[in-house]
Design a protein that fits this description.
Number of strands: 6
Family: In the C-terminal section; belongs to the PRA-PH family. In the N-terminal section; belongs to the PRA-CH family.
Catalytic activity: 1-(5-phospho-beta-D-ribosyl)-ATP + H2O = 1-(5-phospho-beta-D-ribosyl)-5'-AMP + diphosphate + H(+); 1-(5-phospho-beta-D-ribosyl)-5'-AMP + H2O = 1-(5-phospho-beta-D-ribosyl)-5-[(5-phospho-beta-D-ribosylamino)methylideneamino]imidazole-4-carboxamide
EC number: 3.5.4.19, 3.6.1.31
Radius of gyration: 21 Å
Helix content: 40-55%
InterPro entries: His_synth_HisIE, HisE, PRA-CH, PRib-ATP_PPHydrolase-like, PRib_AMP_CycHydrolase_dom, PRib_AMP_CycHydrolase_sf
Distance between the termini: 29 Å
Keywords: Amino-acid biosynthesis, ATP-binding, Cytoplasm, Histidine biosynthesis, Hydrolase, Multifunctional enzyme, Nucleotide-binding
Strand order of the largest sheet: 2-1-6-5
Length: 201
């Protein structure tokens, strides 16, 4: 393994990235003990410069980071942790510490949107909201959800026969939404689905 280049205080910056979505969650510091503890336990540990002590991420909040992989940059002076984040990463209550946008030239949608939508649907199931279409589907049950999957699949087929892609885009989004509702109803996670796709690849 490449040797870590700790600074004069015995610290190295560490970046935590959500393994499932690629979202950058936070930046903290590690000393040798924190690095070793992370490898040993499989959960992110850092060194608090203000408290001058080792701490496990989520030890009080429960928002732990289960480590998927640990990498060093080309110079060995920065650690990248790919993690599965439980709850939020930021002490402010935001999901990521990087929520203060300075400039955004283009908003690019990515796979993290699927996780956000899946989690929102899951939350609706646990905390019903009056007037929610998602809750209506859950209340009607599996037969209603399956009927909607059938209807939306047919609409995707019809849209695909028409010129252009705008109609297909709309109908495909409807189908994916209803598929996420079905997955929630049956207890199938996106991670399991992506694992199946990865296995086929």
């Amino acid at each position: 393994m490449m040797e870590i280049k700790f600074d004069e205080k015995g610290l190295v910056p560490a970046i935590a990235q959500e393994a499932r979505t690629g979202a950058v969650l936070m930046q903290a510091y590690m000393n040798q003990e924190a690095f070793d503890k992370t490898l040993e336990t499989g959960y992110a540990h850092y060194y608090s410069r203000s408290r001058k002590k080792l701490w496990k991420k989520g030890e009080t909040s429960g928002n732990v980071q289960k480590v998927v992989s640990v990498s060093l940059d080309c110079d060995g002076d920065c650690v990248l942790l790919k993690v599965e984040q439980t709850g939020v990463a930021c002490h402010t209550g935001e999901y990521s510490c990087f929520f203060n946008c300075v400039q955004e030239n283009d908003k690019v949608a990515n796979s993290s949107l699927l996780y956000e939508l899946y989690d929102l649907i899951a939350d609706r199931k646990v905390h019903p909201k009056e007037g929610s279409y998602t809750n209506y589907l859950f209340e009607k049950g599996i037969d209603k959800i399956l009927k909607k999957i059938g209807e939306e699949s047919a609409e995707v087929i019809i849209a695909s026969k028409n010129p252009g892609t705008s109609e297909l885009q709309y109908e495909a989004a409807d189908l994916i939404y209803h598929l996420l509702v079905l997955m929630n109803e049956k207890g199938l996670s996106l991670t399991e689905l992506f694992g199946e796709l990865q296995g086929r690849r």
